[in-house]
Amino acid sequence: MYRQAIRNSTAVTQPVKHTLTSAFGRPLLAHNGIRFQSTTDTTTSTTSQGTQTGVKMPTDAITRVSDRIKHDHRELEEYYNKIKEASRDDDKVRWQNQFVWELARHSIAEELVVYPAMEKHVPDGVRMAEKDRSEHQQVKEKLYEFQSMGPADPTFIPAIDSLWETLAEHIREEEKDDLPALERTIDAALSEAMARSFDRTKHFVPTRSHPAAPDRPPFETAAGLLAAPLDKLMDVFRKFPEGT
Ligand SMILES: [Fe+2]
Ligand SMILES: [Fe+2]
Questions:
Q1: Nearest to 218 by CA among 116, 84, 137
Q2: Where, if anywhere, are coiled coils annotated (predicted)?
C-alpha cells in the first residue's frame, strides 16, 4: 500500500525519497534571485498545450511552467470531483488526502517559484503576486479546516464546496491573467527551468497547510520548506486512493 501510494502520488512528479535526497544537497531557491537549475534536457519548448478544463496533458509533454501549473489545476478539479462522487467514506478520505496534499504542494510551489518570478519579470507583477498570495491565504484557511474533517461530519461537503469555490476563482484568474503575463515576459528556456524547479519544490511541502504558515519573504526559501514537518508527510502517504 505504501509503495503503491508513493507510485500513485508521484505520477506527475518524482519519488519523494529520491527528491528529498537530491534536494538536501542542492538548494533550489533563493529569494529575489531564484536559481533555476540548468540542464542539458533536449525537450523542445511548447506554447499553449490545450489544457482546458477536464483535459490533462501527459507530464512528459509539458515544458512550460504555465502548462505545468494548469496540469495541477486539472488534477485538483478531478480530486474535488472524486471526493464528491465517492460513495464510501473510506474513498472520500483517500481523495480528501489526495486533494489536501496536492493543493498544499501546488500552492507552496507557486509561492516559492512562480510568484517571485512574477514580481521580478512582469511589469505589474508585484501587485499580481500580492493578490495571489492573499487568495492563497483564504484557500489555506479553508483547507486547514477541511483537512481535519471526517466524511461523517455534516459540514464535510459544504466545506469542500466552499474551498473549491474560492480556489476555482483563483485558478481562473491565474490561468486567464497571471500565467499568460508571466509567459509573455520570460523566454522558453526560463519557463522550462521554472517548470522543473516547480516540480522539485513540490516534494518539500508539508502535509498540512497551516494558515499561519509564512508565505512571503524572507521565508520563501528552501530552508523554510525544510523546516516543515516532513515526518507527517508519511502519515498521509499511507492513505491514498488505490489504483490511480
Ligand atoms: Fe495559485
Ligand atoms: Fe495554481
A1: 116
A2: none
What distance in angstroms lies between residue 106's CA and the mean position of ligand 2's atoms? Answer: 6
Instruction: Tell how far the Cα of 132 is from the centroid of ligand 2, in angstroms.
Output: 9
The count of other CB atoms within 10 Å of the CB of residue 174 is: 21
User: Under a CB-based contact definition with an 8 Å cutoff, are residues 195 and 70 in contact?
Assistant: no
Q: Is 149 left (phi over 0), alpha (psi -120 to 50) or beta?
A: beta
Ligand 2 center from residue 72 Cα (angstroms): 7
User: Which ligand has the minimum distance to the alpha carbon of residue 72?
Assistant: 2
- Tell me: pLDDT of 41 over 60: no
pLDDT score of 97: 85
User: For residue 154, how far is its CA from the centre of ligand 2 (angstroms)?
Assistant: 28
Share of the chain above pLDDT 70, in %: 57
**Cα gap 193→191, rounded to integer Å:** 5
Predicted confidence (pLDDT) per residue in 171-227, tens digit:
999 999 999 999 999 999 999 999 988 888 776 665 444 444 555 433 333 333 333
Centroid of ligand 2 to alpha carbon of 95 (angstroms): 19
**Ligand nearest the Cα atom of residue 198:** 2
- Nearest bound ligand to CA 128? 1
pLDDT at 80 > cutoff 80: yes
Rounded to two decimals, what is the model's pTM?
0.65
Calculate how far, in angstroms, residue 101's C-alpha sits from the geometric centre of ligand 2: 14
Q: Give 83's contacts (C-beta < 8 A, 6+ positions apart).
A: 92, 95, 96, 99, 160
